[in-house]
Design a protein that fits this description.
homodimer; 414 residues; five-stranded mixed beta sheet; alpha/beta; 17 strands; six-stranded mixed beta sheet; 25% strand
Chain lengths: 414, 414
C-alpha cells in the first residue's frame, strides 16, 4: 500500500484563525483513487519546523504533499526550508518568470522583486505550471519520497492538483480506482435524507453524507478488483438512491449545482426566466447568472428593496402594499406577475420577506418569506418560516424559489 | 515560551469525509491566553501511529492535547496506545463507572461492557469528569510533558476544555494575553501590500497576510508582559499600517466587510444607492443587501442581462448598444445614469462586461469589464481587463464598483 502524508504550512492554521481544509481535500482526492493519507502534520511558518516535518514524512512515506508557504511575503518559507534540507541552491526557472511577468502585465503592473522570487526553485526540482496564480508548484525527490509543494490558496491548490498531481498519481501509483457517485439534494435535512435511505441494501458500499447549507449531498463509494463489477454495483445502488430521493434530488456528480440544474430545466423546456427580489437582494439573480450560458434563459432581474422600487419598477400598487404589507402573499404574487409581464419571460419569480436580524413583528417574525412563481397557468405561492440567520434565511429563500421554478418547468414540460 | 502541540485521532479526518475543526478550536483557545500551538498532527485509528505521534509530541513540547479515539467502539484506540507507550495497566476509575451507570439509567438502559470500558484509564493518570458524555477525559505525564486526552465529539471536547483545560492552563502556564489588530484591503495584490509595508519597524510584532479573493487581510499580533505597553505598541503599529495602506484599506477588525464599509460610507454621507448590473448579474446588489440595515441606503437594483432589458428597464437607447456594443464605456455610463435617474438615488452604478468563459472577441476579450458610477457631479468610469475565471471576474468587478462608490462618497463628503 502506497504511504502518502500531507503537511499544511501556516501560522493561521495553528492560531485559531482558520480551519485547515487541505487535508480533507487531499483525502477526498486520494480516496477517489483507492488511496488514502496515512498521516498529516500542520506546522507554523518556521524554517526548522517545516524542514523537520518534511524530513520525517519523507522517511515514513512514499509521497509527501505539502501546501502553503509558497507566496511572496516574508512568512512564506517552504522553499527556503526545502533548500536547507536538500543542501542545494535556489535557481531561476525561466518559464515561471515569464508566467509571472505575463500575469502582471495583464494587470498593467510590473512584477515586484518578491513576486519574481517565486520563480526561484530548488536546484534539481521541477516547476509545475500554476494557471490560477503566480507561484509555481514544485516537485522533487527527497529520501526516495516524491515531494510536492503546492500553494495554500485553495483555487491554486485545486488547479495544481488537477493539472499535475492527478496525472502523476494516475501514472505512477498502483491506484485501485474507487468508483463513486454523488447525489445532491435540496428540500430535506440530513437526518431526513438518512430516513429516506433507511433499509437500502448498500452491498458493502461506503455512504458519506455532507450538509452544504441549504443542500445535502450523498456520496457512494464502491471498490472492487473488477472495475466492471464495481460499475454494475454502483449503477444498481444509484437506481435505489434515485428512487428514494425522488422530489429532493436535483443533480448528480461533483459539479452539479442547483442553479445550473434549474437553468438547464428552463433551457430544456424552452422557457425564459425573470426574477423580482426583495429580501434576497439579488442573490437569486446572481446565483442564476453565475451559470455560464445563463443569457440563453435568464432575461432580467430587479431588486426592489424599497417599497417605492416595488411600485416604480414593478407597478405593484402602493395600496396593495399598504393593505397587505410588503411581506405578504399578495405582494409576492404581484411581483412575480409584474416581472413576468414587463420582461416577456415565460416564468416570473417574486420573493419578499424578513431576513433578519431586525424587522420582525409578532405577526411576521424574522424568517417570514413569501415566494411566488408565475407562469402561463397562473401563480404558485409558498409562505416560509425560516429559523436561520440573515444570510442563511436569504440563501434558503432563493433555493426554495429555484425548487419552485424547477417544478413549474417540469409541469410545463409534461 | 510554552510549547504546546495538538494531535487529532480519526480515520475520518484523513479520508476526506470530515475537515478537522479541533486544531482551530485549540488555537483560538490558546491565543486568548497569549499561547499558541507549535505544531499539530492528524493520525488514523491505529495503535502505532497514535503512540508514535504522542511520543514525538511529548519529546518536543511541554503540553500535548489529544482528541479522538476515547469512545466505546473498536476503532477507539487512544487509551490502548497510551498504556502501551507508558508500559502501564488500565485501571478502573470508580467515579467514571458511576457516571457511566447514571447516564445509562437516565436513558433507561444498562451500560454495555464497551461503555464501561471507557472508565478504565491508564494507571497513574487522572480522570477528568465529562458532563457532556460518558468517556472521561484523561490527564497524565509522559516524558515531562503534560498530556491531555479528550474525546473527539465537539460538544464533549468543549465541555472538557472549559471544565478542566482552562483552569489548568490558567494556573499552570505563564499566560501572556496576546493583542491583535486586523486590517482589510482591496485594490492591491498580496505582494503589492507587502511592498507597501516594506521597511515598517514592526517592533517584534508578528505580521500575518491572508489573501481572501479579491481582498488581502493583514493581522498584527503583539505580546507583552505589560498589557498597557502591548496596547500602546499595537496602536503605534496600527498608525503606521494605516498610513502605508491609505487608498486600499477599507476596514479594521475581524468583522469588517467591504460592502458593509461602503454602506456605512453612504449612510455617513446621507447618500443612497441604486445599481444596474449586467455581467455581475446581481452580485453587487446581493453583496450590498447582505449587510444588515441596507434598506437605509440601498434603494434598488436591476439585472439587465439581455440587451432588451437594458433598453426596457433603463431606457439605454438600442442605437447606443448597436453602435458601441453592450460592453462599452458608453453603455456602462448610460446604465449608471439611468438607474440613478429612475430610482432617485444619489449614486447610480452601471456594470457591463464579459465574465467568461465564452463571449470574448479579439477587441473585447474575456475579462473586459466597464464600471461606471454616476453622482451629482457626473460619471466616473473604469475599464478593467481581468485575468480570472468567470466567478472571480464577477467578484473583482463588483468589488471595483464598491471601491468607486466609496471614493465618490469620500469626495461628496469633503
Amino acid at each position: 500500500m502506497t504511504k502518502i502524508e500531507a503537511i499544511a504550512v501556516g501560522n493561521e492554521l495553528l492560531s485559531g484563525d482558520l480551519a485547515d481544509a487541505h487535508v480533507q481535500r487531499f483525502g477526498a482526492f486520494l480516496r477517489e483513487r483507492g488511496l488514502g493519507l496515512s498521516r498529516s502534520q500542520t506546522v507554523p511558518d518556521d524554517l526548522d519546523a517545516i524542514g523537520d516535518a518534511i524530513s520525517q514524512a519523507a522517511r515514513r512515506a512514499d509521497v509527501v504533499l505539502v501546501t502553503g508557504g509558497l507566496g511572496s511575503t516574508s512568512d512564506d518559507l517552504t522553499v527556503d526550508a526545502v533548500v536547507a534540507l536538500l543542501g542545494v541552491e535556489r535557481v531561476e526557472d525561466g518559464p515561471s518568470v515569464e508566467h509571472i511577468r505575463r500575469r502582471s502585465t495583464a494587470l498593467s503592473r510590473t512584477p515586484t522583486a518578491a513576486q519574481l522570487e517565486q520563480a526561484w526553485i530548488p536546484s534539481g526540482s521541477e516547476a509545475l505550471f500554476n494557471r490560477a496564480g503566480s507561484a509555481p508548484g514544485i516537485q522533487l525527490t527527497y529520501h526516495e519520497a516524491t515531494v510536492f509543494l503546492f500553494p495554500g490558496v485553495p483555487v491554486e491548490l485545486e488547479a495544481l492538483m488537477a493539472d499535475h498531481l492527478a496525472p502523476w498519481v494516475d501514472q505512477a501509483l498502483p491506484i485501485r480506482p474507487l468508483q463513486s457517485a454523488v447525489f445532491k439534494t435540496f428540500g430535506d435535512t440530513e437526518s431526513g435524507i438518512a430516513t429516506r435511505l433507511e433499509g437500502v441494501d448498500w452491498e458493502a458500499a461506503h455512504v458519506a453524507y455532507r450538509a452544504t447549507f441549504p443542500e445535502v449531498h450523498i456520496t457512494l463509494y464502491v471498490q472492487d478488483g473488477n472495475p466492471d463489477e464495481a460499475k454494475e454495483r454502483l449503477d444498481r445502488l444509484s437506481t435505489r438512491v434515485r428512487e428514494r430521493l425522488a422530489g429532493v434530488l436535483f443533480g448528480e456528480g461533483a459539479a452539479a449545482s442547483f442553479p445550473a440544474a434549474i437553468g438547464g430545466a428552463c433551457a430544456a423546456s424552452g422557457l425564459t426566466l425573470a426574477v423580482a427580489e426583495s429580501c434576497t437582494g439579488g442573490l437569486l439573480a446572481q446565483s442564476l447568472t453565475a451559470v455560464s450560458g445563463a443569457s440563453a434563459w435568464f432575461l432580467e432581474g430587479v431588486v426592489t428593496y424599497s417599497d417605492e422600487a416595488k411600485t416604480s419598477l414593478l407597478d405593484v400598487p402602493a395600496e396593495l402594499i399598504r393593505s397587505h404589507g410588503a411581506v405578504s402573499e399578495a405582494v409576492a404574487c404581484a411581483m412575480a406577475n409584474a416581472i413576468r409581464a414587463r420582461s416577456g419571460a415565460d416564468i416570473g419569480v417574486g420573493i419578499t420577506g424578513i431576513a433578519g436580524p431586525t424587522g420582525g413583528t409578532p405577526d411576521k417574525p424574522v424568517g417570514t418569506v413569501h415566494v411566488a412563481v408565475a407562469g402561463e397557468n397562473g401563480v404558485t405561492h409558498r409562505r416560509l418560516q425560516l429559523p436561520f440567520d440573515r444570510l442563511r434565511n436569504r440563501h434558503a429563500s432563493a433555493w426554495k424559489a429555484l425548487q419552485m421554478i424547477g417544478r413549474m418547468c417540469a409541469v410545463t414540460n409534461t
